[in-house]
Structures are given as C-alpha cells and as structure tokens.
Amino acid sequence: MSGMKTSLVMLAAGAAAMIPLYAAQTPRLGSVRVAEGQLAGAPAADPAVTVFKGIPFAAPPVGDLRWRAPRPAAAWQGVRTADAFSANCVQNIVDVRKPWTHEFMAHGAVGEDCLYLNVWTAAARASERRPVLVFIHGGANTEGSGSVPVYDGTGLATKGLVVVTINYRLGPFGFLAHPELSQEAGYHASGNYGLLDQVAAVRWVKTNIAAFGGDPSRITVAGQSAGASGVRNLIISPLSKDLFHRAIAESGVSLSGFGAARTLADAEQDGVRFARAKTAASIAELRALPAQQIATPPVGGTPFRWGTVVDGYALVSSEADAFAAGRHNDVPVLTGTNRDESGASPQPTATAAAFQKQVEQRYGEKAPEVLKLYPAASDDEARAAANASARDIARVTTSVWAAARARTSKAKTFTYFWDHTLPGPDAAQYGAFHTSEVPYVMNALAQSDRPFTADDRKIADVMSSYWANFAAKGDPNGPGLPPWPSAGDKPDFTMNVGDTFAPIPLAGSAEKLALLRTVLQPRPRS
C-alpha cells in the first residue's frame, strides 16, 4: 500500500472537494410528516445527520397475513418516536461467523412484525431534494437486517445522500410457495413475499422520501449478495416500473438462474414437501404454527431453497428472456465482484486432480481448452489456476451480464473488481472476501473495531464518493476521482477499485477472454 499513499491523498482531497459535507451543520429536520403520521428522529453518530429508525412501511405480516403480499401500514396519531430499530425478520441470529465478524451480522430480537425501514438524512429542509439510496441487505435470503452495523447510513448521508435501509421477510416466511397459497392469492401465485416486501419498501420511499429532504425522482436501489439479487429482480420486475432510477448490485451478478430461473410449479412442490415436514395438512395449519417452529429447518431430506421464482406476477421470466425482450427497467447500473470470492481464495487448497475434475464437469467438451489456458499439472499449478480462473470468470461473467442487458438498454453499466484486503487478525486468510467492500462504499469504517489505517480511510472516501456520484447522476465519475469507463466504452475492461483505481483487463489474456465469453454465454429459454 505504500506506493498508493500520494495518489490516495490526492484522490481523497478531490473527492472531498466534490461531495458536499455537512459536518458543521446542526440537524434541523428532526421531525417529518409521512403518509401515516408524524415522526420524530434522533441525532446519528455524526450530529449533522438525523436518523429515523423503525418506520413501518407495511402492515405486520402476522396471523392471517403470514404468506400474503404486504398490506399498507396503519396510520398513527400524535408523534411517533423513531429512535430504535425494529425487530429483525425471523432468522437464526449468529453473532460472529468469520470472516463476517460482529459488524457484518444482525443483532437483537427477531419477529414476524419486521417490515420496517430506517432513514438517515443531513437535510436541513424538506425542499432540498437530495439523491436517495435504498440499501437491500444480503444474507442468502435467510438472515440479515437493515440494522446491521456496516449498513449505517451516516457516512453516505454526510456526502449528500438520503440513505434508507430496509427489512424483508426471510427463509420460509419470505419465499414459501404452495398450491393453496397460489389459489387464494388474487394474482394466482405464491412465494416471492420477500421481493414483494422490497417493492413495497421502495414504493413507500418514493411516496414519502421528499419529507426527509430526498428527491423521489433520483432513487437508487442498491444491495449486496442476496440484496444484489433483489436489485436484479427489481430491474426486471413489472411491479417496480418507474419506482427507481439507478441500481447498484454488489457481488450479485452471476449467471446462475440468468437463463433458466426456477418455476412456480417447482417451488410449489417444495412448499408441499415443507408443509408435510411440519406435519401441517393445510396452509391454515401452517399459519397456526409458532414462528420459531416454521423457522426451524426440518431434519433430514433434501434441504429447502429459499429464493425467488418466476411466478407470472412479480417476475414473469428469467433475466435472459427479460433482457432479450427489452422487458426491464432501463436504468444505469453499477455492479461488480470481489477478488476473494466466487471460488478464489488467498490460501487456495485445490489439488490438480480436483481442479481438473471440476473443469471437466463444468465445461464438458470445452474442458481441454480451459485446461490448456489454465494448466494444472501439479497441485501448486492447480492452486494458481483455480484462483486465476475464478477471478477471470467472475469479471467476465459480470461483463457478459452487462452485454446481454445492453442489447435492449440505452442506460450505461459500470463494472468493478474490488481487491483491497480488509485489515484484521485473519486478513491473510480471507483477503478481499465477500462483503468486505461494504464498510468502504457505505463510508462506515467507524462501525468496526478493525485496525484501519489512513489508507483505509482514504479508500473509503474514494469508494463512497463514487457511490454518491452514481446515486446523484447515474455515473460514478467526478472531479478528483480516477476516470471510470462504462462497460460500453471499454467492453474488455473493468474498473479495479481498492488498492488501485484504474481499468484492468477482464481476463489474463485475449485468448482466455474469448474462451470464457463463449463458455459463459447464457441462453434464453425462449
């Protein structure tokens, strides 16, 4: 990192000059009126920012509303004090699971009454019309919360954004499909309740965010991991048309499900199996069970998958089909991946035999070509090949996704590759792991007790400035920042961010790029 110090100082100075700061301002927007009633916020960690916690955006999905589309939140009388986070949606809370330490995990109570959001704003007046960022948390659709410490919106709010974090139903509460549920729903489908919650939250934001000094015509939906998958779903969902204007998907672009998404019929059969495992003969009996009994995974049998399905309502096709037909929200997108995820590791353990078998299974008749470009004659060679191929594949996959969307899109896509190792006692083991970019893009290093240096703080300033610029105008570029070309401008490159800030090739050679673009190309189902 020593070679980066001078350039990072210059970058940080330029970023600070461009993004308006509000550290000297006393918060004056402590009370707002939304559609349901009056809210009183509280000072955030930076007193220039006001935070409103635990705002209901939908009715509690309890009792007969379990496994139904979200209903509007009830109005209240008087002033509602919004100074505490709501319960997390039902999940099994894990405090520390390395490398995801305390700051990356949900904490506190869980419950079904969880459809709440949180707003951070440094606006002094409702008329300011600041760009808005709505962040959707990750956690494999089974865990996480809008109150996770590294999602704290204070840092981005000081850079001029109004930041919103949301909860959505998880696991079987958010994604159970069942024939009986499809029959009772007015839209003749089931599952996707977590996605419907996300749509409802963004719709609430568009209706109410002006009260917080936000601009309802500049809403960015952003998310990481499962939250990035949620963003991808919002891009193609007919229910979210005109609700947002930019999209950020961090570690969320893969080709899994891109060309062949899961069907409602398949998910319904899993729902029947789930009900049987809970010894429930009907949906009424399932609704009568305590939440914890629903949340406890059944013992034995094939594990249940909790995720979205093509239900004909919230999602009407796979992404490949939606892009091919031009059925998507044509908004600017910023998306990318991290160095030490997607199968890559700072300390790879692959053997030659295992790597060769994996390549043969994954690429079939193309395997000899892949092994020629990523040779693995020995274990050491295999480990180097495993990392090189995983990182090339991740970057090329992102590019393939962007190119498929570009065929029916006018808006630009910006891609990145994050390579900075998060400091800590296990840094050498985990490197730039999955989720490690989040504290930097959220400008939330203060939420962690890791041994951050001046370089980390400069990187966070540059990364959060890129994110703030993108939310403001659909383009991360701005004065004082290294130029970031769009995927259309430099289709064979991506933007390296972290230890260096510059475009880099998608793959290690032109031959590798050509081959990977061939083998990774998804095929629409129709």
Structure commentary:
- By secondary structure, the protein is an alpha/beta fold.
- Helices cover 33% and strands 14% of the residues.
- The chain has a domain at 28-334: 3-Layer(aba) Sandwich (Rossmann fold).
- 52% of the residues are buried.
Tags for this model:
11-stranded mixed sheet, Rossmann fold, alpha/beta, 526 residues, 3-stranded mixed sheet, disordered N terminus
Topology of this structure?
Elements (H helix, E strand, L loop, with lengths): L4 H14 L12 E4 L2 E4 L1 E2 L6 E7 L22 E3 L34 E6 L8 E7 L17 H4 L4 E5 L4 H5 L3 H6 L8 H16 L5 E11 L1 H11 L9 E5 L13 H14 L5 H6 L2 H5 L23 H7 L7 E6 L13 H12 L3 H7 L5 H28 L6 E6 L8 H4 L7 H4 L12 H20 L19 E5 L4 E4 L4 H10 L7
Parallel strand pairs: 2-5, 7-8, 7-9, 9-10, 10-11, 11-12, 12-13
Antiparallel strand pairs: 1-2, 3-4, 4-6, 6-8, 13-14
- The CATH class of the domain at 28-334 is identified as Alpha Beta
Number of helices in the DSSP assignment: 17
Largest pleated sheet:
11 strands, mixed
- Mean residue pLDDT: 93
CA-based shape: globular
Oligomeric form of this entry? single chain
CATH superfamily of the domain at 28-334: Alpha/Beta hydrolase fold, catalytic domain
DSSP strand (E) fraction? 5-15%
Spans with pLDDT under 50 lasting ≥5 residues?
Answer: 1-6, 12-25
Total number of beta strands: 14
Rg is 23 Å
What structural class do helix, strand and pairing data support?
alpha/beta
Helix content: 25-40%
CATH architecture of the domain at 28-334: 3-Layer(aba) Sandwich
Query: CATH fold name of the domain at 28-334, please?
Result: Rossmann fold
Distance between the termini: 49 Å
Strand order, main sheet: write it out: 3-4-6-8-7-9-10-11-12-13-14
